[in-house]
Amino acid sequence: MLNQNQTPLLDALKANAARPHAPFYTPGHKRGVGIAQPLADLLGKAVFRADLTELADLDHLFAPQGVIQEAQQLGAEAFGALQTWFLVNGSTCGIEAAILATCGTGDKIILPRNVHSSAIAGLILSGAIPIFLNPEYDPVLDIAHSITPNAVQSALQQHPDAKAVLTVYPTYYGVCGDLSAIASITHQYNIPLLVDEAHGAHFAFHPELPTPALAAGADLTVQSIHKVLGAMTQASMLHIQGNRIDGDRISKALQLVQSTSPSYLLLASLDAARQQMALHGKMLMSRTLQLADEARTRIGQIPGLSVLEMPRLRGFPGFVALDKTRLTVTVSGLGLTGFEADEILDDKFAVTAEFASLQHLTFIISLGNTPADIEQLVQGFTTLAKEYRRTNLTVKSYIWQNLFTMQCHALSCSPREAFFAVSEILPLTQTNNRICAEIICPYPPGIPVLMPGEVITKSVLNYLQQIQATGGFISGCNDISLKTLKVVK
Fold this sequence. Notes:
With 489 residues, this protein is an alpha+beta fold. It contains 17 helices and 19 strands. The strands form 6 sheets. It has a 7-stranded mixed beta sheet with strand order 1-10-9-8-6-2-3, sandwiched between helices. It has a 4-stranded antiparallel beta sheet with strand order 11-13-15-14. A two-stranded antiparallel sheet has the order 4-5.
């Protein structure tokens, strides 16, 4: 057992920030002396004294032998891994590295169609061929959930030469599929199960939370420590266990997708967040769950509103658990879209959601929230239901329906081939049946609607226009107005 009280990287950074010396190394602001005054006024000078580079005492991220290695070992023990890597380019680079380390050009990888755009980037970088599985879909709530063990089993029977399976656990809505069963099926083919656990870093620290991916049998998992725990934005971790993943290949892949000038502020925040959870995680998560339960109960009693609950989900194949710290509120009963409700809550009541969709608002309740936050959230919804309700409007549109029930996403070529192919830009009306050459997705949650190599269809074009018309935001495309699309020439 390691001493989880220790913060070796944080301590080394603190010592180097306090050491008087003449700095002739990057960054150029020289420990805050050259920082622009408006930025110094906002953040203070202390943070810039700790904004250091890879000095001798601070170790090297790509070849750690000192304090970074020690901090990563502590992280591995705290999160239940064999080996852990700190990430400063977010979970995005972890997902990319996971695919690069397990798949080469032409190799097949099985994954859900509602993956994050980082997985598509991993396909482009690696040249892997995706075998997409549609997630389970709730047509009433218009929410996509997880893929099922049966779907994975069927895909592997059809593609026994696949090199890996990747899944999302939990989804952006906090829904967890049967990861243990998926792991068991995947391992029958002696290939690794890769898990995008970006929103599940807290699972290891309380028995009332869903089973962590590693405990459920995952070979590799990527966690956004910054999303739900106490690290700084972009600070994430990649964990592995077992012998199906080559750790050296992970290290080499991360050198391709991580900055060679890593931020020690981000690295130290991972060290500190790990210590915080190792020592106080259960207490912090107990408090967080209490806040979430209060919010869920009180908001669920407001006329016109409903919340995503376990009873609703038990009827879906493969469903195992719901992360109760993720609160999804359906507002369509008020005659409002999620986009409209989001704007009202933010502008009028200073309540800001994680993301909005056509019928819902989703909120992350974490260790940083307070009882006052929950009270403000509940009061905001109470007033919204009383003063902004519409009786003459019914929200009938369905965001995901075309994608997962009517639409077959046909790949004409690999994402890598389409991404690097000669392309042209055409008016949206002239792109039907053409091959897409860019990633197009509403964000958040960053799930691509079109990706390089997919055939553009009329239903997808209608879907994208619907998103825009109802107040959503389309990202990734060359033309943010969505009047044109880039296609393979």
